[in-house]
Amino acid sequence: MDTTATGNPDIPADIAATLVDPAAYAGQRIHDSYRWLRANNPLGVARPDGFEPFWVVTKHAHIQAVSRQNELFHNADRPTTLTNRAIEQRVRKITGGPNLVRSLVQMDAPDHPKYRALTQGWFMPANLGKFEPRVREIARATVARMMEKGGACDFVADVALGYPLHVIMEILGVPERDEPRMLRLTQELFGAQDPDTARIREALTAEQFSAMMQMVVADFGAYFKGITEERRRAPRDDLATVIANAKIGGDYMPEHDATSYYMIVATAGHDTTSSSTAGAIWALAEDPDEFARVKANPELIPGLVDEAIRWMTPVKHFMRSATSDTELGGRNIAKGDWLMLCYASGNRDEEVFDEPFKFRSDRKPNRHIAFGYGAHLCLGQHLAKLEMRILFEELLPRLKSLRLDGEVKMTQATFVNGPKKLPIRFQVN
Prior knowledge:
Oligomer: single chain
Distance between the termini: 54 Å
Helix content: 40-55%
CATH class: Mainly Alpha
Strand order of the largest sheet: 1-2-10-7-3
């Protein structure tokens, strides 16, 4: 039954519960729920226990409509990621606002365009071109290490985690010896709901969870404070120097804003790319025909990259809140209402993608929204695609065959997730 026609926006309690269950994102359950919502209630209200009610935006067109109207749908007024009542209250006590950090993601105009402009030039293709030879060196070294594994490896641990981490840390200016610390902090930040990466493994109270997140943010802050002081004393040609010396209205940006800026580059700059890279290998390992097609036609590699990003959609959602009463998809949205933009659902929208549940490197056009849309379109999208393209250009010619060699495991997280274990077996040319 299409509930849009009945005027009742509430979605079934079991589906609402799935949307807030980290374990659902580690398998097919979340996609089953998205598919039902797109067909039956594409813009409904979820009322899961312990959470404020929120609209669930599952259609590609509606996600784009919200994302292009930045005055009407704000990022910063309410939590920017799905947060339960107890944790939100705790965060507000700590920070005085709804979010623990204040990065580009948690900003609206006029701050967002000013802060984005500070580094935007760095992430444009014209500037990234100068890094391409170094990225290729890193990719070759990564592939060489994989080739030494004797025909079997965990692609996540052995390739997908370290490669994009090394690239973004070089661009940022973090020494290689500190990369393990950055990886650990990123996993604790994004994988905080996953039992393998949470600092405290037992069931957490809101107080404990918020304290854990505060510790992670403080750890990032302490590290990058030292980097800032160093780059102001002795500037270099790296992104840390740009952030450390950036001025907003004539003054250095506040320390919390600077920490948040470093964090978004240092974490989003590799974690999501790792997931999409692993997603591509997972798909090729499951489909020998697709693997053979891409190997035979290297010109398909950019398409493989885009399809892997659509397929995994590592950032599962962001939240927005309405600044005034409005209408969307036949629904009346009230001022202050909270909306969940379900990017992974939009990227399987049957109205936009032919065979959305099939992995196709030759998909054209591929209008995925895994990088978001509008003013908040991911700053690092060109870098992510460059890294993935170069890795596959170096890796695929070396592989004669590729298959799974055990169970693939995904992280359990409602916000950012992807493969955490991808055992593969391969033959080398």
